[in-house]
Specification:
Elements (H helix, E strand, L loop, with lengths): L3 H11 L12 E4 L8 E5 L4 H6 L5 E4 L16 H11 L3 E4 L2 H4 L7 H8 L3 E5 L4 E2 L2 E9 L3 H10 L14 E9 L16 E13 L3 H11 L7 E5 L8 E2 L3 E9 H12 L5 E3 L4 E11 L4 H6 L4 E5 L3 H10 L2 E4 L9 H9 L6 E4 L13
Parallel strand pairs: 2-3, 2-17, 3-4, 14-15, 15-16
Antiparallel strand pairs: 1-4, 5-12, 6-11, 7-9, 7-10, 8-9, 12-14, 13-16
């Protein structure tokens, strides 16, 4: 059976925990990373209903962290403390991704999924939370082995340029020299003799976060017992390396009410509140969860409408003053894709059963529920 550490590595590879906001609490919240697990229940957040469904000893992988603010005591009148105690009592573990998922590289972030649900085109990051740091890896390979080695690099995550190209490399030939010393077991040549070999220099670009895994894959695929390679940090800071939660995209020109109806159909929120500033919609910003902090950035980008949750009274006044309409569809309705996005990653772990809990929106419409 896989260990929880395997689950953490898989999630970190797709949704880097290092990109979570500084105030966030992601990763392993309850449990031991060395614990073996047979199954994982993927949920939006921890509730009594989710824990009723969870099996004893199961791992819980959620979007919203349960342990967000420090607990001063374990008084079970406290909702968070009581739920945490239930997890411990049922011998379960808990992992949260939250803003690590928001900060994933496009098009795999939560904002990209929301933009797709809304039918946005020409989607890009509205306001970058950060920019992916890149490295260039160069390795010298005998010509006969270059395809095997390049495949290993690509499969480990190298060779991606921006969000639209992968399996990129640059190659040029030359002559490599080496002399195997006593104790060496050379693939080519003999101990004590200077060897000259026609080699290919293979260069690939990669995220700095994947460097260790890529170098390990290269060494495993390379025919030499000592691989000659170098790594160079890059200062590239192109827009296609940016990540962040909100997305900017286009829709066919339409009235605000028509667009609101399409949003209602796409996200099925229990209610939809409109702040009306413009009658026509062409350029849209969407943000999973609370989106008020992006009102000013959306206005600067020339957006006509912002789709998000958790809009307050003074947020609405700010948006109207800036000339941008708002559609508040509730927090949870903007984050419906969290469960399938997390589950998709975990399904790749061999020997792990992945189950999905239903997403429960705490809000409801009159006469419903």
């Amino acid at each position: 059976m896989p260990q929880i550490s395997a689950l953490l590595r898989a999630l970190d590879a797709r949704f880097p925990f290092a990109r979570a906001e500084s105030w966030d609490k992601t990763g392993l919240q309850i449990g031991d990373a060395n614990t073996e697990i047979a199954s994982v229940l993927v949920a939006y957040e921890i509730t009594d209903a989710v824990l009723d469904e969870a099996r004893e000893g199961e791992c819980l992988a959620v979007y919203h962290p349960l342990l967000f603010r420090p607990l001063e005591n374990l008084d079970f009148k406290n909702h968070t403390a009581r739920l945490a105690a239930r997890i411990v009592e049922q011998k379960q573990s808990l992992v949260a991704v939250h803003t690590a998922l928001d900060g994933a590289s496009p098009p795999r972030a939560l904002g990209d999924a929301l933009a797709a649900q809304l039918g946005l085109r020409n989607v890009r990051v509205l306001k970058a939370s950060g920019s992916e740091k890149l490295v260039k890896i160069g390795v010298h390979v005998p010509a006969a082995n270059v395809e095997t080695v390049s495949e290993a690099a690509w499969n480990a995550g190298a060779g991606k340029i921006g969000h639209l190209y992968d399996r990129a490399s640059f190659r040029f030939g030359g002559t490599g020299t080496f002399r195997p010393l006593q104790g060496a077991n050379p693939t080519l040549g003999n101990v004590g003799n200077l060897e000259k070999v026609e080699e290919i220099r293979l260069e690939v670009v990669a995220s700095e976060t994947k460097l260790g895994a890529i170098v390990a894959a290269l060494k495993n695929a390379h025919p030499y017992e000592e691989m000659a390679y170098d790594v160079v940090s890059l200062l590239n800071a192109d827009e296609n390396q940016s990540y962040g939660p909100a997305r900017l995209g286009e829709v066919a020109p339409q009235g605000l009410d028509e667009f609101a109806a399409s949003v209602q159909k796409a996200l099925s929120p229990p209610n939809l509140r409109i702040v009306r500033a413009k009658n026509e919609v062409k350029l849209v910003v969407c943000c999973p969860g609370a989106g008020a902090s992006f009102i000013a950035a959306a206005s600067r980008a020339g957006a006509d409408c912002l789709v998000c949750g958790d809009i307050k009274h003074h947020d609405a006044l700010q948006a109207r003053a800036l000339g941008i309409s708002l559609l508040d569809v509730t927090h949870a309705a903007t984050e419906r894709a969290t469960i399938p996005l997390i589950a998709e990653v975990l399904q790749e772990i061999e020997g792990l059963e992945v189950r999905r809990a239903a997403l429960e929106n705490p809000f409801s419409s009159p006469g419903v529920g």
